Automatic annotation (TrEMBL):
This is Costars family protein ABRACL. Gene3D superfamilies: Costar domain (1.10.10.1540). Belongs to the costars family. It comes from the Eukaryota. InterPro entries: Costars (IPR044302), Costars_dom (IPR027817), Costars_sf (IPR038095). It comes from Laticauda laticaudata. GO terms for biological process: regulation of actin filament-based process. Residues 1-47 form the Costars domain.
Length: 49
């Protein structure tokens, strides 16, 4: 597995799906939908570039 390539793919998706914040950063918010949600483990995550 080429880790650098995988990270670049992730960054591309953040740019594609992201929203520009007032401070200039880009973020993508997503959550987990499943039968069991665990606090801390399945909280809403924020990815930033």
């Amino acid at each position: 597995m080429n880790v650098e390539h995988e990270i670049n793919l992730l960054v591309e998706e953040i740019w594609r799906l992201g929203t520009k914040n007032p401070d200039g950063t880009l973020s993508v918010k997503f959550s987990y939908s499943g039968e069991l949600l665990l606090q801390g483990v399945h909280d809403i995550l924020l990815l930033q570039d």
